[in-house]
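Deliverable D4.2, example record:
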Amino acid sequence: MNPTNTGFACPVSGWAENPQISSFIARCAQLAMLLEVSASPKPGNVDREHNYPDTCFEHFVASSVSVYPVIEQAARSRSGIGMLIRSAVCESSAWQNGGNTHFGAFLLLIPLSMAAGELLNSSRIVPYKLLPEEFEVLAANAHAFVRATNCEDAVEFYRAFEVAGVRVNSVDEFSLEDSDSTAKLRAQEVTLYELMEIARGYDLIANEWTSGFGRCLEGAKIITGFMQAQTQKAETSVSNCSGTGINEAIVYTFLKLLSRHRDTFIETKFDKATAEYVSSRAGEILSTWETFSGSKARDFAALLPAVQEFDSELLRKRINPGSTADIIIAGLFIALLGGLRF
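Output generated by the structure prediction step:
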């Protein structure tokens, strides 16, 4: 492994800015990735308590740390999304041997980081923070960046697959297994956004690109709402609150999003029926959680056995809701940009 020779040299356009802002954005992205993989129990996914045979908790930690320079560059960039994605994958792969860890997360974090850089560089002072009403602006600006992608972004995106080894539903006309696909992309001048439009019906991340990052915003709002309720509960409690609440917030949000939206990674790896079952089961657990009221509102300890049982079932069957985890990372990133602390 040679982390000093990963090919990270992204010739993208940028602007002169306060370097502290791009550093702040990159740290928010790192913390979002670290918090997501640390949250437990997060049914079916790698966390601090469970590994997969070939991919472990430490692989995700290494990947989260390694991508810092790419996210910082993204925060200073206004183009070059495809190369930034490939650079992120290269950095991640150079620092760990667990294979694909954050491919979907990179697809979301890079345009969101570009949008955050644009927003925060408009007359901000320390401490840097997005206002709640700016979350929608952030998503809209990220959507504008992805809509502006070009054919070279699509080519770089395909090259990233050679490094990442991602499981996807290939677009027949531009199959990832076809060595001539990049030539076809150039011949037809297909942009990366157009590729996402083709895949939006069966890929959660592609749908985020084309629909304006709505589920990322949804995740951010659920997380911040949960943490606000946790703070109010702690303030009115006669005893000290146990823990920071962030782990519970992530698990709750994970179940919430999973119950509302089928995970397309599961659908790709297994089938639609399996994805629907997982969403239904998450909804059942969540419904029980939300029936608690008063002092027991969202009592994590009371629901822990059911969540752990669900986690064990999915791990045993090798069913991992990876796309939902990517959305959680993006939601955490937005919440952290908005000042979430714990």
